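lol ok so funny story. i was supposed to be doing the assay writeup but got distracted and ended up predicting the structure for this chain instead. priorities right. anyway since i did it might as well share w the group, maybe its usefull for someone
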Amino acid sequence: MCGIAGIIGTSRINPRAVEEMAEIQAHRGPDDSGLWANASGKIILGHRRLSIIDTSAAGHQPMEIGSHVITYNGEIYNYRELAQRLIEEGGVFDSQCDTEVLLRAYQHWGENCLQEFNGMFAFAIFDAARNILFCARDRFGEKPFLYHAEKDYFAFASEFKALLSLKGLDADYEQDRILRFLYHPTQGLDDETQTAFSAIKQLPPAHYLTLNIETMEVETRRYWDIRSDEIFTRMSQSDAENHFRELLTDSIRLRMRSDMPLGSCLSGGIDSSSIVCIAKELRGADSPYDVFTGRFPHSSADEWQWATEIVDTTGVESHSTFPTSEGFLKELAGFIWHNELPVGSSSQYAQWCVFRQAREVGITVLLDGQGGDELLGGYEQYFQYYLQSVRGVLSNAELISEKSNIRERYPLGLLTKGQSFKQALPNSIRHILAGFTGDGNDFSFGLKASAARNLHQTLPPLPAGLSEFHPLAGKLYQEMLYTHLPVLLRYGDRNSMAHSREVRLPFCDHRLAEFVFSLPAEKLMGEAQTKRLLRGAMQGVLPDSIRLRWNKQGFLPPQADWFRAELGDLVETIIESREFSQSEIWRAGWWRRVLQRFRNGETNLASMLWRPVVENAWQENFVGRFSKEKGSRIFLDHDR
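and the output, tada:
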């Protein structure tokens, strides 16, 4: 994994500007750096390298082969198979690195090379023969590609801070997007091409971008989407489970390819536990394998009893880290600086601590279970979409029995009549009632009326393609490609890269998605089971105590405890400040009542109190660090 940067202009580019873009991303690639410029000086590409595969100088970037030059972030996991295919068709290689395979694949197949890759990636290729810059991002958006386009230059990078370091590029942001995220932390920041920063766009997952260097015109196209396959639809449950296990095992096998030390994150949940069990079997009983767990002793958030069962079963080497509120406050500035945008909860800090410990131990590459929930139906709120999907498939008696079983096993899985009534009330009425009573736990109640109205008016349209799937698959498609997972992938990228670690996600394999989304809903969540497919596939691999554990627990620190301690003082300072009271968006009185309600015992409000804390920290530690007077000018020949 690495950091990429570049500027293409109509006049000579200042090399120092690209160097600074790369330097500010040095944490993404501490092992090597490179700069490449064409003869005219109008195209400059930069790179910071984290050496993972073929760590020799042969993998130096930007890499030039013939009339093509690449700067690339990520891994092509099936690079060996692709290299063999290219060799059989006359290709010759000078290294053992996947960067060369990617570039030669582009030379051989053109843009169709994207269909051949199994990996995570964001890259830019200068194609001198066609006079274009060809850029692409992986199918799920594991790796970021951010850019700014003007009529006289195009700049791109892996992180916002690299682009915002450019002279003339201000850190102006769209307040509505930030509020929409704080209201619902799966919306506003990662679900559209436009980012929170007005001047910066992002290449969407599964898209490529072509820059016509002569005209400076930008064109983007989608190259992949999930499509169902009728071949899989008619599979029996046992056949589906066996096939899924084979696909998951191969996904893990490919993601274990590394010339640097490799291990896994282990929470104790079924996703990470499945990965650890399969990875250890592939690695072999006599080969060491390190796992990393975030722990919260003496708290219901601590999953050590489950994680230790996997440790004992597999014989892996276990390492534990202990995130605390004191540690969070101490690292808050750096944590926000590297995350670049507000984060949804303190669980992202716990993830930060896990990657930091991996660095301390010397493990460079980590497998992680991210994506399993969205792929397989891991959240109990998905049951409402499952029931919609099986109407007409199950008889009335079977449907009633299924609902009863769901409520018994997952008491919060289906809405009660009271909850449905509250959700049916117009937002304006709910907002007014909250202002009078100080009750409720909806973030919009803490906003002034104009801000709350904008919050609901800016919801993005539903993605195209949902009509192809049954309601459950449609919801999973939306959560995996547009809302929930893209946010989590951003967290994973920034937190791992902050510590120069590479995180790989076996559940984010397009072969798994294409298979799972072809299956009927009952194979995914039937018999009142979240992740039914994975539970069945892991029989005989996972201990039943974990495989058949129904109460899902997210990787979340004891936030309520944190707000009873240091974070409580911090949030009180924020909401009692003059700036907060005079803000155009906050209803300070409502937030004071929320803090008092929390202190009176409504501990569920801790997640609400997180919102002003993280928004204030973002203003101070990221936006506030970019002044109007910034780095080197973009062009050599004029003052821009």
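The chain has 28 helices and 17 strands. The radius of gyration is 25 Å.
back to the writeup now i swear
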